[in-house]
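sorry for the late reply, my laptop died twice this morning and i had to redo everyting from scratch. anyway the thing you sent over, i finally got around to it. pasting the sequence first so we're on the same page, its 167 residues, then the predicted structure underneath. double check i copied it right bc i was rushing
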Amino acid sequence: FVTRKITRALARIKLGLQERLYLGNLDALRDWGHARDYVEAQWLMLQQDHPEDYVIATGRQYSVRDFVNQAAAHLDMNIHWQGEGIDEQGIDTASGRCIVAVDPRYFRPTEVETLLGDPTKAREQLGWEPKTTFEALVQEMVTADLRLAERDRLVDAAGYRAYSYHE
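ok and here's the structure:
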């Protein structure tokens, strides 16, 4: 998942364990939500007398670039974007280094540009609303991956190699 790739890589970059994050389409729009909220919706669906189909989504869209910016902000990093298309780069404003780059290998030939769900039926019939905001979702992921990266840094400091197996 691109979200986990982003949070892991930025945490490792923050700690000096990785140089750069490579991504594909930064403009792809997604409706990202928390599994905890979606499981609650599934449970509510199972409580119904008659099975029905529901769209479980947040009803909000964010780009891959938005996700990168939000994750960086939680790590007290600021990214300035320059260039366009495959030449676009995310520059860490504190160091001036390119920490995010577009790599054509990560473009999907059948990529859907925009995914957005309409959770109206779930809200009206199940009383379900997602509780986790986009910002809280990203913060939770960054916090978890920063802890993992800190462990990798300890391994490095002890003279062992922490492989970047997360990509």
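Helices lie at 2-14, 35-46, 64-74, 120-126, 134-157.
thats about all i looked at so far, will dig more tmrw
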